[in-house]
Fold this protein.
Amino acid sequence: MISKDEIDEALRRYDKERITIATLCSHSALQIFLGAKQEGFRTLGICKPESKKVYDSFPLASPDEYLVVDSFEEILEDEFQMELRKRNAVVIPHGSFVEYVGPKNLETGFFVPMFGNRKVLEWERDRKKEMKWLQKAGLTLPQVFEDLAEIDRLCLVKFYGAKGGRGFFLVGSGEEFKEKIAKAGRKLLNGESDDYFIQEYVLGLRYYPHYFYSPTFRRTELFGVDRRDECNIDGLYRIGATREEIQKFGSYVVTGNLPVVVRESLLNKLIDMGNKVVAASQDLFPPGIVGPFCLETICRDDLEFVTFEISARIVAGTNLYPLGSQYSCYLFEEPMSMGRRIVREIKLASEKERLEDIIY
Amino acid sequence: MISKDEIDEALRRYDKERITIATLCSHSALQIFLGAKQEGFRTLGICKPESKKVYDSFPLASPDEYLVVDSFEEILEDEFQMELRKRNAVVIPHGSFVEYVGPKNLETGFFVPMFGNRKVLEWERDRKKEMKWLQKAGLTLPQVFEDLAEIDRLCLVKFYGAKGGRGFFLVGSGEEFKEKIAKAGRKLLNGESDDYFIQEYVLGLRYYPHYFYSPTFRRTELFGVDRRDECNIDGLYRIGATREEIQKFGSYVVTGNLPVVVRESLLNKLIDMGNKVVAASQDLFPPGIVGPFCLETICRDDLEFVTFEISARIVAGTNLYPLGSQYSCYLFEEPMSMGRRIVREIKLASEKERLEDIIY
Amino acid sequence: MISKDEIDEALRRYDKERITIATLCSHSALQIFLGAKQEGFRTLGICKPESKKVYDSFPLASPDEYLVVDSFEEILEDEFQMELRKRNAVVIPHGSFVEYVGPKNLETGFFVPMFGNRKVLEWERDRKKEMKWLQKAGLTLPQVFEDLAEIDRLCLVKFYGAKGGRGFFLVGSGEEFKEKIAKAGRKLLNGESDDYFIQEYVLGLRYYPHYFYSPTFRRTELFGVDRRDECNIDGLYRIGATREEIQKFGSYVVTGNLPVVVRESLLNKLIDMGNKVVAASQDLFPPGIVGPFCLETICRDDLEFVTFEISARIVAGTNLYPLGSQYSCYLFEEPMSMGRRIVREIKLASEKERLEDIIY
């Protein structure tokens, strides 16, 4: 792990009047760049040649400068990182940045100051740690079946290596699981869940609340809610697909997001959940999570939220709200996206000379 | 019923320069508080201890003052009501307020000035009166089957006492109805529809247009449209649920709302429907409905709207539009939520010294 | 075809300081009128008597003046057109205007200056030309089956004359096609596709990206994305409809629109597709498309967009964003609807004395 001292040392040498907000041109970079400009910062986009035109085509969200790479591996090269430091860059890590550079590489080989607690990367990528975190927060989690014989309801089988939601399938019993795994040509690991895990399929509706924990204000903000648009599972109803067809053709690739609000009386639960996730993170990896996170939940018809995952950074669902959401308007008078919120935190911390509280 | 004279008398004693907008901390209170602040009013939140933190966590929608109750019954106590009057409170009744305090209690035992015509409570809670109102307005209603033998299509069976959309089921014939009601362990009332009613299941898409009738402008405003997110019925397609599974597992609990707009050529119909509902209310319970209401409709593929219910107050679907909707922007230049719209009406009526036209 | 010279001559006689933005009161007229007012233009609504009240009920989108017609045929009368010219009218053609007046009539008998390239009407209404255009642009199109014997997957059968999405059906083989067409009482045309066409049914999610090609800025702007709400197909899942029931009861009538955003990494593809459609149009019918268009796509789970249609004008999906969308905010600082965008282009071209580049 890159030490906090090393990052603090780099930060001390930064020209605080000329901080540059940098991120990879993908995922949620448009709102980050727009937000950074709104807050008065310089912006830098790291991108492959083919992505540049996307960001050029949106003038208000085009970064002031690009660093073009042919391969994401270049990002880890010393020279590249020194270029970022030379520009007083604070990097905003989003899902694509973490995925393309690699969470382990970011932990051990990326010495540019990043927004947020670097330790969170480990707690997010390691599924056991993630579950420990959510359990410690006291959230309701879907039941996980370790023993095939115990499967007594509809379950979703997920493979750890599966990218973008592919390779999920539904089973109703241990027998069905064995049949399907055999058909799929996968090795059955005698019930060891190294390769896959079997999770209760929770009936209900999906809500993805976005949060922001602000060390400056010492508060957890509920910032918006979305629902992921999963391809092609969310379109199969139009042909009246049967369970068998859903199993055969169904996939869970996120291709977009839909806006949604929750019943106001449910906000109490969502806010509680957010506060508890923050508190648990402060215990598990002090000083805990900093900035944006998202809980991936299903609300059951008994009004209980079951949380099946946490994204410990800005999520793409916030792209729905580049000028603010149905909840951010109760927090800020200005149009406040999650991207802008991150940069606002950097600005506030910088003004208080407390950048080291939010940058790791 | 609390007499209009009594309310008018209370209003006369109010300090019109210091009116406080009060509501229960739930349902749509965030937009009501934000709107009241935007319009320059003091705000007061009635809440249970556990809800306070929700409203505190959104600084721009936190009421200036709370009156905390341990039980909603306290709201009906004389002392509590006198506290509200002392603060020149105008209460905005929303769905949770009406439900928790009880519509009958509000009619007969709540003597604090409330926004809107108090008589509407009776026309909304009594299903027969509600239907009379909608019929008088000339709306297309779903066919209701009183005689089991006449059931000739897919029908939805609803129980009057059912809370939050539970206990609905689908039947295709009188025989199926008898079987299901027997299975559910409910008494069959020889076709008397005291306990349940059987309604044609209308194929189509659900649209919930929000309206505001302004006595000040003497106009009905179409303010926005939403679709309710019903848990778990709106998620069951993801497992390819059969009709039988939908019957067995399906529920209709509203957990959120989705934004939607209608084809512009359909606005003519929606506006007509709104105007007719207002006109019918003026005949049935003069001076008729005041302020917000919502029609719960299904648009069939012949472009006819079938109305199955009316909510005669602010609905939670307006929570989607705290800074205005796709229709309110054609009515007001400012970001105008339904909550703010209510308070604006109070402001306009107050300026014209006509508060008694909108407060009952 | 009305000659460009004739339009240019009319334009020359226009008082450029008093241009009136005119359109038919339907489809997307509210945002066009609001946008025109925001940009400082006079507005004129062409309408049937029954539509006037819709536009009157939205004061900020009410046109300054109406020309009321009893039948849309009046629009083609010389006298009517001279009235429009007398007011220096630039007509914004939208879907309902084109449909009601008739694309051929607009091409040959409507001599009032219209926004956009008039030649596009022909390329849009003739399905073979439309396909040629999309193919030339290099877009991925759904496979079309000319020979019944070749049908090897789920297909959608569409009839050319079908209005509003009715009369579509699904078939899995040539045999099934023959059975269904016989049942429907339609003549089978020995495989000639004059009456119907058979298209691969693409599994995935529907995205309808809105674009604007600006001759003034020489750029294609990605302006927003929506999903059409199709009645009743998008509601049938709530009763667990089987394929057979979907075939029997299902219809595809557009009754509304839902907002949606796409994964940011997919914007590259969408922007490419837009640029290629513009380039192909410039080759096929110079100077090519001017102003708004929309691609009707399905995103598959391999992240490929299959385009099944183009709308070469403002689409109703833009009604979701009367004050700007999740993408327009990266293009313009002001709240920018597609309606306003069109009028802004007229304003910019007028200032540069280049109206003839965008009006035909």
